[in-house]
Write a structure and sequence with these properties.
Helix content: over 70%
Radius of gyration: 21 Å
Distance between the termini: 22 Å
Largest sheet: none
Oligomer: single chain
Number of strands: 0
Length: 276
Amino acid sequence: MWLLLLVVLAICIESGKAGVWVALAVGVTLLLTVMANGVGMIWPWPKREEWEDAAADPGWRYLVNARKVAEQWVLSRWGSRQKAHLAGWIGLFIAFLSAAAALIFWAEALFPESPYPEMAASWLLLVLLAVSVLLFGFLLWVGRVAKESRSAGTVIREDLHGEMVLLGQWRTFCGAVPLPYSFWRYARGLIPAFGWAYHHFFAGGHFLALTAVVGVAMAYFAYVMTDLSFDVLAALNGIEVCPCRSSFLARLVWEALFLSQRHKPFWARLVSWLGL
């Protein structure tokens, strides 16, 4: 949502270099705020004896076990550890490309007279878009090949004692539901496509403040892909993370919310059908 507000701001203040600096300052400040708050980001546990012992709250032990169940369920949908490793490293490569694209967009906004940022952006954004589409296709393919028969609802009701227990413990220890799993969590995967479309059709020195904002969006996407890739690689390497920061567990919490409401939006049904 804050990215959409930035776009509106950039359109309203479009006034040469001054507009670029204002849009860039506001955008980077908001981006750093998101990163500093760890929004959507996993954080490693403190020392083991501080979080898992015989005296731990039963509800907290339930969430720790739920995180492990969620990791096993999600990773089983990949079919093999090798495929999951490959996807994690492709995600980090996409994060690197996206961060480089952000720097190029900012250079393009700050130095519109130079032809080099625009030339570099043309090639880099095309590669970024191609690799992102490749990763999306790879995720769909491994989901179909693995043929994981257990649905999220089955895992919640058979392994985690039902959606109400999971939601109750999540609200007690982690806060609001549905946490990071909303329509925007999936829609932000379109940022590389929007970045390429903007550069291809609208860039060219006429929307400098908006170009700076697109750079902020690309930097945010780099942060998102780093987060998602670390989730996968941490689970594969047995790194313990806080249940409240686990995207795997949040995925089951998201499903539990819809199970409790007896209603699932069309976009959510589509995401489940795709195996994401």
